[in-house]
Design goal:
By secondary structure, the chain is α/β, with parallel strands linked by helices. It has two domains: 146 residues, Quinone Oxidoreductase, Chain A, domain 1 (Alpha-Beta Complex), CATH 3.90.180; 139 residues, 3-Layer(aba) Sandwich (Rossmann fold). It has nine helices and 15 strands. Helix 2 crosses helix 3 and helix 2 packs across helix 8. The longest helix is centred in the middle third of the chain and has 23 residues. The radius of gyration is 20 Å and the shape is globular.
């Protein structure tokens, strides 16, 4: 039957080791749909999985990779045809189910979504989980009633994968976007995406002891969490909305109930991995309307499977910007 290449994380004598292995194709018989991977993307969960984080991945050896675009090779359920271009994101892919850092994956049919015609397989992974997460947050913000005339929207962690797409898509919708970053060298790149202002972390942060401050913006897309999220909430206008998806700044939220009961702020949680399929289709339809991959090219770097180690190491450093996409030969 032959073999295929996969980037594998193994636990050896209590240490986690990563390397490219040849895997017997017989393992692909274990699930319903077999997909030849064209592209995958690197996300923070992949970094955690590759470092042995048991909160992400319980059992090793394991193949990370929480998102994939590719072509159907076979489908036991007959829901898809051989040759269909598809995308798989979230669910348990790359976490406790072997993921996209491989030439092939085998997954339940319920995880598979037909790729929309607007994007190529490459563009679909440039968007990936990061762009999908940003779009899901934007969808919730729009559903809460937020509109461009309400005021500025802050995007925290604006040079990360979710942040980059958030700046581009909110700008496309006509919002005045203020991008927060600690990397002054990327200010021109963020302005090219559509950011009207670029703010430092110090301009965002509010004293922990202050329960409320003067409103400065109508809402935010937060990718950081912790004190950053608290500060954003304290300075959001009445009936504003803040969507949040990250915890790199901490999992604790030092805040009182006052922003919620006095200003009626909406705190919108984003859980992209477990999004129901019908909502996934709606989010991809929204992406088709507002995502412009050509505008985020400067923030996307394409790599080969052999370069995954280096890319994961870069993700652990504060200087990393944008999104890595892996082209699988």
């Amino acid at each position: 039957m032959g073999t295929f290449r996969a980037y594998r994380t193994e636990e050896i004598n209590g240490e986690f080791v990563n390397s490219i292995k040849n895997i017997d194709k017989s393992v692909l018989d274990s699930d319903e749909v077999v997909i030849k991977v064209a592209y995958s993307g690197i996300n923070y969960k992949d970094y955690l999985s590759s470092r042995g984080n048991k909160g992400i991945t319980r059992n090793y050896p394991h193949t990370p990779g929480v998102d994939v675009s590719g072509v159907v090779i076979s489908d036991k359920t007959n829901l898809f045809n051989v040759g269909d271009e598809v995308v798989v994101m979230g669910n348990d892919l790359g976490m406790n189910h072997d993921g996209g850092f491989a030439e092939y994956i085998s997954v339940p049919a319920a995880w598979v979504l037909a790729k929309i015609d607007k994007f190529t397989l490459q563009e679909t992974m440039q968007i990936g989980t990061s762009g999908f997460t940003a779009a899901l947050g934007i969808k919730k913000m729009l559903q809460s009633g937020l509109k461009p005339s309400d005021g500025a929207i802050v995007v925290s962690g604006a040079t990360g994968g979710v942040g980059v797409w958030g700046v581009q898509m909110l700008s496309k919708l006509g919002f005045e976007v203020w991008a927060m970053t600690g990397k002054s060298e990327v200010i021109p790149m963020l302005e090219a995406l559509g950011a009207k202002r670029v703010l430092s972390r110090e301009e965002i942060m509010a004293p922990i002891e202050k329960p409320l401050l003067r409103p400065k913006w109508a809402g935010a897309l937060d990718t950081v969490g912790g004190e950053t999220l608290s500060s954003l909430l304290k300075q959001t206008s009445k009936s504003g909305s803040v969507a949040t998806c990250g915890n790199v700044g901490g999992m604790e939220l030092p805040i009182t109930v006052l922003p919620f009961i006095l200003n009626g702020i909406n705190l919108l949680g984003i859980n992209a991995a477990d999004t129901p399929m019908e909502i996934r289709k709606e989010v991809w339809a929204l992406l088709g309307d507002i995502a412009e991959p050509s505008k985020v090219t400067a923030f996307c770097k394409e790599i080969a499977l052999e370069q995954v180690d280096e890319a994961l190491n870069q993700m652990s450093k504060s200087g990393h910007i944008g999104r890595f996409t892996i082209k699988i030969d």
